[in-house]
């Protein structure tokens, strides 16, 4: 089953390094289930996402926390393409610093 599972993961964009990192057994199955449930890969750090949507990184981090998400480690890739769209949608109406403060409160 492992070759078929690895082939499926690769077809969904998982790299050989990521497959090797999780190793054998349950971790590999967990990775496959994660890809089935949330097929969009965790491709962006919060800093990268802020840059992509043209937002101040501090504002992006504050909004991310205000939306109920935990603070990721600096550089940790935790956001998917879907998250990027959500962040852009959250930032757009609060581009003005005063609006941002009201939204975060």
Q: How many domain units? A: 2
Biggest sheet layout: none
Order of helices and strands: HHHHHHH
Q: Could you give the count of β-strands?
A: 0
Q: Classify the secondary structure makeup into a structural class.
A: mainly alpha
Fraction in helix: 55-70%
Global shape = elongated
Describe it.
With 105 residues, the chain is mainly α. It has two domains: 36 residues, no CATH class; 59 residues, no CATH class. The protein has seven helices and no strands. Helix 4 packs across helix 5 and helix 4 crosses helix 6. The termini are far apart. The model has no long low-confidence stretch (mean pLDDT 80).
SSE order and pairing:
Layout: H1 2-11, H2 16-22, H3 26-37, H4 46-53, H5 57-66, H6 81-91, H7 97-104
Short structural summary:
The protein has about 100 residues and is mainly alpha-helical. The protein has 2 domains: about 1-35, no CATH class; about 45-105, no CATH class.
